[in-house]
Amino acid sequence: MRTDAEIVVIGAGIAGLAAARVLHEAGKEVRVVARELGEASRVPDALLNPVRGKRGTVALEAEEALEALWDFYPRFGPVRRGILRPVPEADRGVWKGKLEGRRIPHQWLDEGLYLENAGWLRTTPLLHRLAEGLDILYAEVERLEYTTIYLRTPERRTLQAGLVVYAGGASGAHLVGLGGRFTPGSVLQTQEHFKQARSYGVYVAGHSLGGSYLPHQYTYTSHQTEPHEIEWLLSEAEKLLGYRPAVGSSWAGVRYRLDSHYLKEIPGGYALTGFGSAAYFYAPLYAHRLLKRIQGKS
Ligand SMILES: Cc1cc2nc3c(=O)[nH]c(=O)nc-3n(C[C@H](O)[C@H](O)[C@H](O)COP(=O)(O)OP(=O)(O)OC[C@H]3O[C@@H](n4cnc5c(N)ncnc54)[C@H](O)[C@@H]3O)c2cc1C
């Protein structure tokens, strides 16, 4: 059968672009089809955080993910090192236990846990750099049947892929029907610039103040920042910083989570999606895993 590309990646967020970049660099013929460059991936500043939440849960495969991300992102733009987690004294023993035996470089300071190999980055310039030189078709996918991709174009064009990689995130999840949870959320844009990322309850990094507050849902609906979210973020920021930072605009998005099964076989190829709040953390590791799967190495 004639194909338009050996591999068609649906989605140009961090999942799709990291995958397309790794496949392209390995000599594969890759075409990306996406409505736009990133969606949830346009969260203004993204933390790369191996120790999650207020319980200090060490992310699965954190060591491998850290190694992969430091090998990958700095080639495409600046990544700021370090995240300070101001863990309360009373909880430090539990956190120390969770970090024991793990290869997560860290120091305990008076202020809390300093994760020296964690970091944060500004997303939009990175997405543009990742997209440079890739074959990207900007179009809406209407449906997917095995390796045939039906586009919502006036001439109802189709694309025939040798193999499909679905990386369409939350808003495209209906195309593959994998279930999962959708969590809306917002990031406030602060006037102050936080060079040192801090995270406990909410996070600050760059000009961003973000966090998780709203409950998850089982279907995707687009999200706009609600006034009570702003109040929650500011009150949590006060606990983190000791004051409420001045804010201007806000950004809203929806996380899509598939409980650790970020790379799945689907009819006609693979789905690489569902990273929740850790998309930038895992995307380079899983892009390489995808390449290995395609090359038949694991
Ligand atoms: C408040 C908040 C804070 C967050 N903070 C962080 C953080 O600190 N660190 C972190 O790593 N992550 C964070 N995230 C999560 C992160 O933003 C997303 O989970 C992640 O970027 C998703 O990447 P993705 O590539 O899977 O999807 P997306 O970025 O959503 O990309 C989806 C792509 O698919 C395309 N697409 C979808 N449907 C179609 C269709 N039908 N036809 C054509 N194209 C389609 C879109 O155009 C887009 O290109 C946060 C999210 C929120 C909401």
TrEMBL record:
<dbReference type="GO" id="GO:0016491">
    <property type="term" value="F:oxidoreductase activity"/>
</dbReference>
<dbReference type="InterPro" id="IPR006076">
    <property type="entry name" value="FAD-dep_OxRdtase"/>
</dbReference>
<dbReference type="Pfam" id="PF01266">
    <property type="entry name" value="DAO"/>
</dbReference>
<feature type="domain" description="FAD dependent oxidoreductase">
    <location>
        <begin position="7"/>
        <end position="290"/>
    </location>
</feature>
<dbReference type="InterPro" id="IPR036188">
    <property type="entry name" value="FAD/NAD-bd_sf"/>
</dbReference>
<keyword id="KW-0560">Oxidoreductase</keyword>
<protein>
    <submittedName>
        <fullName>tRNA 5-methylaminomethyl-2-thiouridine biosynthesis bifunctional protein MnmC</fullName>
        <ecNumber>1.5.-.-</ecNumber>
    </submittedName>
</protein>
